[in-house]
Design a protein that fits this description.
This protein has 14 helices and 12 strands. It is an alpha+beta fold and about 425 residues long. The strands form 2 sheets. It has a 6-stranded mixed beta barrel with strand order 2-3-8-5-7-6, surrounded by 4 helices.
Length: about 425
């Protein structure tokens, strides 16, 4: 009953002095809103970046790129062999942890035409492993096969944007002939559509993911490049645990295949994710510090207001003690009142955080982090709970000193106070 009475009395005091109570909780409101909103922004960034990593083939994917020779080998740059198909065979034989390997030959953006309509697409020569390595799938038809490789077949798999642009809406592209530059190819498949952010946006990552044309790699060599030099080489391991051992194995095999020339670089999506997590931790520490300072200042504001309120209510305290109230009753009364102020401030801060996040979603709808838009970020219940608990804790701590001061007032002196 003592707690219930303190609760009711605290509500009456807050309602009786609305403006003072609102000013005292303003620091808590801003602190909680800043904490919850900023943590939600960072979590939204992390979520979008993880989606981007998945779009790039997941953590199990390894990228091997052509690189300039290191400084000590610069004078031998003309002798560097670069990535070739022999590297693919060496990796298949000597690196058992690699489950799939996808060599690529990138050809300049080329016009693809059909029945008078054309689209400027990215042409890539690759193998059947490309689908698994990049975590893609065929929406219609099939992908290039090993048989296409052997026969150097003039077949192609189109991205969905290409199909939308050069075919009629209800026209089935499978089996149709399209002109890729100056060569005729038969369409055998259409890739699934990958959308980032706005589904109607056909630029940037959406254009890159859905605006491609994929042909057998040996067909690309025969008709476009006349060489087996690769643009890039992608590999996929069976599990993330194999990455640490596989990367140095790949480096040794490629150094042997390239006669000691280090004209390549090896990177993993896990490294990208680790770097982003470090950035996330820096953001969290910085934002957490700012939010803590805001809440700390809010707690000081509540303490000052409560101390001022005690000076106004000294006679009330004296009367309560004179009619039998114990020091613990007075202490509980002011501590509960402080906790109520901070709790209401925390709740208002949560409401404000929703408004802030909604505003950020609108303002950053076109901003992309790692290929993803920030318009889908949301506030998680755990962040809301943490912000509210933190605000209540700050309020209780800041109310201890004023409550102690009120409980220790001498009743005689309090009754004589003017």
């Amino acid at each position: 009953m003592n707690f219930y009475g303190a609760f009711i009395n605290g509500l009456r005091e807050i309602l009786a002095h609305k403006m003072r109570s609102l000013l005292s909780m303003s620091g808590i409101i801003l602190g909680v809103a800043a904490l919850v909103a900023m943590v939600s922004v960072v979590q939204g960034m992390v979520g979008q970046f993880k989606n981007f990593i998945e779009m790039q083939g997941g953590i199990e994917k390894i990228t091997i790129s052509t690189e300039s020779l290191p400084k000590e080998q610069e004078h031998l740059q003309d002798s560097a062999p670069g990535l070739r198909m022999v590297d693919v065979e060496a990796i298949r034989k000597l690196v058992p942890a690699v489950s799939h390997i996808s060599p690529e030959i990138s050809i300049a953006w080329t016009h693809i035409s059909h029945n008078g309509k054309d689209f400027n697409a990215r042409i890539t020569g690759t193998t059947s492993d490309w689908l698994v390595v990049n975590k893609r799938y065929v929406q219609k038809g099939r992908f290039v096969s090993d048989a296409d490789e052997v026969s150097r077949a003039k077949v192609c798999v189109l991205g969905s944007f290409v199909v939308d642009e050069i075919f009629e809406p209800n026209e089935d592209p499978i089996g149709k002939a399209v002109k890729v530059g100056g060569e005729w190819f038969t369409v055998v498949g259409v890739l699934n559509t990958y959308t980032v952010g706005n589904r109607n946006d056909r630029r940037g990552p959406n254009r890159w993911m859905n605006g491609g044309c994929y042909i057998p790699i040996h067909t690309a060599m025969t008709n476009y490049t006349s060489t087996d030099t690769l643009s890039e080489l992608y590999a996929r391991v069976g599990s993330v645990e194999d990455l640490d051992d596989t990367v140095p194995q790949l480096e040794r095999v490629l150094l042997q295949s390239h006669n000691g020339f280090q004209d390549f670089s090896i990177s993993t999506n896990e490294e990208m994710l680790d770097e982003f997590k470090q950035t996330e931790n820096s953001f969290m520490i910085s934002l957490g510090g700012v939010a803590f300072i805001s809440l700390f200042i809010g707690g000081i504001g509540i303490m000052n207001v409560m101390l001022a309120a005690i000076n106004e209510r000294i006679r009330e305290i004296g009367v309560r003690k004179a009619v039998g109230a114990r020091a613990s009753d007075i202490f509980l009364q002011f501590l509960v009142e402080t906790a109520l102020i901070s709790s209401l401030g925390g709740l208002l801060g949560l409401v404000l955080s929703f408004a802030i996040v909604a505003g950020i979603r609108v303002a950053m709808a076109g901003v992309r982090v790692g290929g993803g838009g920030l318009s889908s970020m949301s506030i998680s219940p755990s962040v809301m709970l943490a912000g509210f608990v933190f605000s209540v804790g700050i309020g209780v701590i800041s109310g201890i000193f004023p409550a102690l001061r009120a409980s220790r007032l001498d009743p005689i002196e309090a009754l004589r106070y003017e």
